[in-house]
Amino acid sequence: MSEDESISEYNERVLEIANESLLLGEKIPDSKIVQKVLRSLSRKFDVKVTAIEEAYDITTLKLEELFGSLLTFEMAISDRENKKGKGIAFESIYEKEAIVNHSDNEANMDESIALLTEKFSKVIMRLKNMNTTGLNAQTLNQYRGKDGENTTRRYNEVSNRRGGDYGKKKEEEGRFFRCRECGGVGHYQAE
Q1: DSSP code, position 27
Q2: Are the C-beta atoms of 159 and 168 separated by less than 8 Å?
Q3: What total number of domains does the chain contain?
Q4: Residue 94 lies inside a defined structural domain of this protein
Q5: How many Cα atoms are found within 13 Å in the side-chain-facing hemisphere of 166?
Q6: Is the pTM of this model over 0.85?
């Protein structure tokens, strides 16, 4: 067997020689062919040859079983060689992707921080508005009274519409807290 020859090619060549000898009138026994095949294999099959000689009785081993075992071994070797080659290619691709992903991650992180900051600002604004406006469309209007001081007046937008319930306004006034220190609505000073 030559170094670049595959097991299936070698199997065809051995069977062709055995069939030619049978046509010429001389039948070569399988045990003799098995022994000659094991001796003629290339060096990459030395490990498998030793394993076959120890595991099987070579005098009863059929030629098909031998080539099946050798073909399986050859496929396992070629798979390992392919995986080694691919592993190196994957490493270089991975390193390039890691650099790209790292820069993408930084860009995504910047976008996330900007979005978080924007959302946080909106939440803060809503909280400030809740403190000054209250719930259920209650709003505070500041206006300057006759005495010149800033005064806060509370009204309900719903009750100012036509047909609104003006009695409801007085019930809802109890919901707001008035600060003892500054007199503002929507917050209070702890005692």
Answers
A1: P
A2: yes
A3: 2
A4: no
A5: 3
A6: no
| Averaged pLDDT, 48-61 | 88
Q: Give strand pairing partners of 150.
A: 144
Residue 170 in this model has a pLDDT that exceeds 60: no
> For residue range 107-161, what is the model confidence (pLDDT) as tens digits?
788 888 888 888 888 888 888 877 665 544 444 445 455 555 555 555 444 444 4
What would the 3-class secondary structure string for 55-93 be? HCCCCCCCHHHHHHHHHHHHHHHHHHHHHHHHHHHHHHH
Residue 117 lies in a domain: no
- Position 150 in a domain: yes
Residue 37: give the domain boundaries. Answer: 7-79
Of 79, 111, 126, which closes a domain?
A: 79
Q: Is residue 152 part of a domain?
A: yes
